[in-house]
Amino acid sequence: MLDQKLLKNIKNYDALSELSRELSSYPQDELFNFLFPIAISCRSSYINGTAGYLLIDLEPKHTRECAELLNEIAHSRWDVSNREIPFYLVTQFGKWNLEKEIKDYVASNELTESEIRIVETIWYWASSPSVTLCEDLHYFEWQEVIEGEESSA
After folding, report:
1. Do 79 and 45 meet the contact criterion of CB atoms below 8 Å apart?
2. How far is it, in rounded angstroms, from Cα 12 to Cα 29?
3. How far is Cα 109 from Cα 141, in angstroms, rounded to an integer?
4. What's residue 144's pLDDT?
């Protein structure tokens, strides 16, 4: 059974990679329904960042329509600096479809200024080059390789 305790025990990249391998055998819907709510659940938490990373690493298929996910995000405590959520939505719905979904969602719902800002932040990140959305993840891996090459030279 999937439990948040799995995410609390991640202290380094190797542990994260191991957990990703273990989770890859779970059904897609179970993974999504476990990771997505955690990834949007709180601000400035290590656990939601880990859940977000696992969402883009494992890419479980979403179980709800884009508008439903936007609604969940609008009413969540999603950390708007967490770029994994916009990246995941781009991979699932396509960049330009996501833009349309966001515009339609904002236009057809009565939202507070805060909720609008949260949803529009999805497009703020998603509209940038995709590499920007995941550069921290790639940088970490490249930095590790470069440091290893330097020490062996």
Report:
1. yes
2. 26
3. 41
4. 44
Q: Evaluate if residue 85 carries a pLDDT over 70.
A: yes
Considering the entire predicted model, what is its pTM? 0.84
Residue 51 to residue 34: CA distance in whole angstroms: 9
| Burial of 47 from C-beta contacts in 10 A (0-12 / 13-18 / 19+) | middle
- pLDDT of 18 reads 92
CA angle (134 as vertex; 106, 150 as ends), nearest 5: 165
Domain count of the fold of the chain: 1
**Contacts (Cβ under 8 Å, ≥6 apart) of 103:** none
Q: Which range of residues forms the domain containing residue 139?
A: 5-152
